């Protein structure tokens, strides 16, 4: 049995290969039951979340991820996300590998946004605003830079020191990286605005988005959470990773729906349709696009299989 730690999991999931693997898995599909989503009480703090996500390809691989999200870890200088992924044979049930679930989640989440950006962001998108300074942020920036000609990155966080720390993590040749002190000004200039936060209130206003902008919403994974306002949903062409997930869990979709700002028909396509070419994605240079992801077990399975086969090939 293969056991991959954080560094080994990261090394086995290069951006180009991972984005391609996700695209192929969305195009082919797999069996993906509804995931378990539980609130876990943490005395004296915000509730944590326990996620259990199974998926399988009949006759090939079966996987399950258990992830915990503890918002209170921000005060302890600890990652909010911890987890493990178990990959087994779908022929025999034999356990094949255990991967670091936090690293797998961070990289596949960023890769899903990059896959969406490949269909939705302008081909000449060069300015990226990263809203958020958590574990996902550096991954998201690197992933976007693998599919679009990013030359300027601004990072905004509630704590500028954390934004500076995230900037120092990056190693992108030919890319200027800065800390954004004025969120509105940075958003108005950005070709891609990517948000990965645990915010319960809108951070990005729809009126800030310039023609041709792409808004990438990764955080706000509960109906009570959101990173953008109703105006953003009203102005944009909306796309999601999975319709069922976005319509039930993503506050950036659920809340405008409840307010009557948009309808379910406002969602143009999901990643299945984009990957299969049944929807063209962006259709005009000035179109404002919005992508909302809440995560899918399919993405974990694609990443785990890629990592396992990479290490098996070295054996």
Automatic annotation (TrEMBL):
GO terms for cellular component: cytoplasm. Pfam families: OCD_Mu_crystall. It is an enzyme of class 4 (lyase). Gene3D superfamilies: NAD(P)-binding Rossmann-like Domain (3.40.50.720), ornithine cyclodeaminase, domain 1 (3.30.1780.10). GO terms for biological process: carboxylic acid metabolic process. Its EC number is 4.3.1.12. GO terms for molecular function: ornithine cyclodeaminase activity; oxidoreductase activity. Signal peptide: none annotated. Keywords: Lyase, NAD. Belongs to the ornithine cyclodeaminase/mu-crystallin family. PANTHER family: KETIMINE REDUCTASE MU-CRYSTALLIN. This is Ornithine cyclodeaminase.
